[in-house]
Write a structure and sequence with these properties.
Blueprint (H helix, E strand, L loop, with lengths): L7 H13 L1 H4 L3 H4 L41 H4 L12 E6 L5 H13 L7 E7 L6 H8 L4 E6 L3 H4 L21 H4 L6 E5 L3 E3 L3 H5 L8 E3 L1 E2 L10 H4 L2 H4 L9 E2 L3 E5 H7 L1 H15 L7 H8 L4 E2 L28 E3 L6 H6 L21
Parallel strand pairs: 1-2, 1-4, 2-3, 6-10
Antiparallel strand pairs: 4-9, 5-11, 6-9, 7-8
Helix pairs in contact: 13-14
The structure holds 2-acetamido-2-deoxy-beta-D-glucopyranose.
Family: Belongs to the glycosyltransferase 8 family.
Membrane topology: Single-pass type II membrane protein
EC number: 2.4.1.-
Length: 369
C-alpha cells in the first residue's frame, strides 16, 4: 500500500506542524460541530474550544484517493456551504470514541479503499468526548475527506440507561444511532450506520442503493437465531410487553450495520418509540443487553432484509478467552468483529485470530509496519 508518509519520524514532524501551524490548528469547533437546526440534542462543550494539546493518538495519513471517471462528480454542481445536502452523496454515520478510535479509523479507511467513487462519500462522526480533538485527528488522517463531527451529549441517554447492564454495552455513544434522524441535517434522508469494529471490503455504494421498500430500516436478518433469549421472562410473560410482536415474525438483526431511511424515521417518530421502551426497561427489566433490544422491539419483523454478505458478524468471538470465529458461508462484503475480542487488541498482544489478518491492512495506527 502506498502510504504518503512512510516513516514515523515524518509523522511526528507532521504532528508538530499541526500544533504549530495556526492554519491547521484552527478548525473552528463551532463550524465543525454546528447543529443549529437541533439544539436540543447537541450542545457545545466549552472545553472543545480550548483544545490545544497534541493529540495522543498517532495515526498515519491515508493514501489519497480519487473518483473513477464514471462517477458523477458532486462538488462541481453544488459548492460550498451545502455540500452535505448534495443529493449524489453517500452518507455514512459512525461513532468516534477513544476506546474504539483505531477501529473507526480503519473502518473509514476500508470504505474509501473499496469505493469506486470515494469522493462522493460523506462521513458523519458522532463523538461524546470533549477532551480529544477528534476533528483534527480525522482531518490529518484523511485530508480529502468530506465529513462533519457532531457532539452527542451523553446526558440525552444517561437517564434512560439502566445501571445494571454490562459496562461495555452501556457507553452512551452506543445509543447515538437512535438519534441520527435528529442529529443529522434534515436534507440527509438516508444514512448507513456502521459500528467501529468492522471493515468494508466491497463498494459501499451497493449497500447504499439497497431498496428498502416500505421499510425504514434495512439490515441482514437472522431468523434461525433464538429470538426469545434477547428478552427476559418478565417480558414474555406480560402481554402488555410481548404483545408488541403480535402479528409480526420477529427475527434477530445486528444493529452494527443498518441502512436507515431518515425521512421515514422522522415522519413516524421512531426515536420516541425507542425511548419509550428504554423507559419501560428502567422500571421492568425486560431485557439484559443494552442498545440492541429497543431496536428489536421497534423494528424486528419490519426490517428490509439485506444480503448477509453485508454483515459477517461475530468475528470478535465470545467471552471465552482466545476463542476465534470463522466466517459464515457465502460471499463477504463486510467483516464485523462483534463480540468481546477486537482485532487491534489481539494483534497487539501477538495472539491474533486468523481472520484478524483481514483487518490489519486497514489499520492506520502507529508508524508504518
Ligand atoms: C430459546 O431460548 C430460550 C431462553 O433462553 C429457551 O428457554 C428456549 O428453550 C430456546 N429455544 C430453542 C428452540 O432453543
Amino acid at each position: 500500500m502506498l502510504w504518503i508518509m512512510r516513516l514515523s519520524g515524518f509523522f511526528s514532524a507532521a504532528m508538530v506542524m499541526i500544533v504549530l501551524s495556526p492554519s491547521l490548528q484552527s478548525f473552528p469547533p463551532a463550524e465543525a460541530i454546528r447543529s443549529s437546526h437541533f439544539d436540543g440534542y447537541l450542545r457545545f462543550p466549552s472545553q472543545l474550544s480550548a483544545v490545544n494539546t497534541l493529540n495522543p493518538f498517532s495515526f498515519r495519513k491515508a493514501s489519497s484517493y480519487r473518483n473513477a471517471e464514471e462517477c458523477s462528480s458532486a462538488d462541481r454542481k453544488i459548492s460550498g456551504q451545502n455540500t452535505v445536502c448534495d443529493p449524489s452523496l453517500v452518507h455514512i454515520a459512525i461513532t468516534l470514541d477513544i476506546e474504539y478510535l483505531r477501529g473507526s479509523i480503519a473502518a473509514v479507511h476500508s470504505v474509501l479503499q473499496h469505493s469506486l467513487c470515494p469522493e462522493n462519500i460523506f462521513f458523519h462522526f458522532l463523538v461524546s468526548e470533549s477532551e480529544a480533538n477528534l476533528e483534527t485527528l480525522v482531518r490529518s488522517t484523511f485530508p480529502q475527506l468530506k465529513f462533519k463531527v457532531y457532539f452527542f451529549d451523553p446526558k440525552i441517554v444517561r437517564n434512560l440507561i439502566s445501571t445494571s447492564v454490562r459496562q461495555a454495552l452501556e457507553q452512551p455513544l452506543n445509543y447515538a444511532r437512535n438519534y441520527l434522524a435528529d442529529i443529522l441535517e434534515p436534507c440527509v434522508r438516508r444514512v448507513i450506520y456502521l459500528d467501529s469494529d468492522l471493515v468494508v471490503v466491497d463498494d459501499v455504494s451497493k449497500l447504499w442503493t439497497t431498496n428498502l421498500g416500505s421499510r425504514t430500516v434495512g439490515a441482514p436478518e437472522y431468523c434461525h437465531a433464538n429470538f426469545t433469549k434477547y428478552f427476559t421472562e418478565s417480558f414474555w410473560s406480560d402481554r402488555r410487553f410481548s404483545g408488541t410482536f403480535a402479528g409480526r415474525k420477529p427475527c434477530y438483526f445486528n444493529t452494527g450495520v443498518m441502512v436507515m431511511d431518515l425521512a421515514k424515521w422522522r415522519r413516524y417518530g421512531y426515536t420516541k418509540r425507542i425511548e419509550r421502551w428504554m423507559e419501560i426497561q428502567k422500571r421492568s427489566r425486560i431485557y439484559e443487553l443494552g442498545s440492541l433490544p429497543p431496536f428489536l422491539l421497534v423494528f424486528a419483523g419490519h426490517v428490509a432484509p439485506i444480503e448477509h454478505r453485508w454483515n459477517q458478524h461475530g468475528l470478535g468471538g465470545d467471552n471465552v478467552k482466545g476463542s476465534c470465529r470463522d466466517l459464515h458461508p457465502g460471499p463477504v462484503s463486510l467483516l464485523h468483529w462483534s463480540g468481546s475480542g477486537k482485532p487491534w487488541l489481539r494483534l497487539d498482544s501477538k495472539r491474533p485470530c486468523p481472520l484478524d489478518a483481514l483487518w490489519a491492512p486497514y489499520d492506520l495506527y502507529g508508524p508504518s509496519p
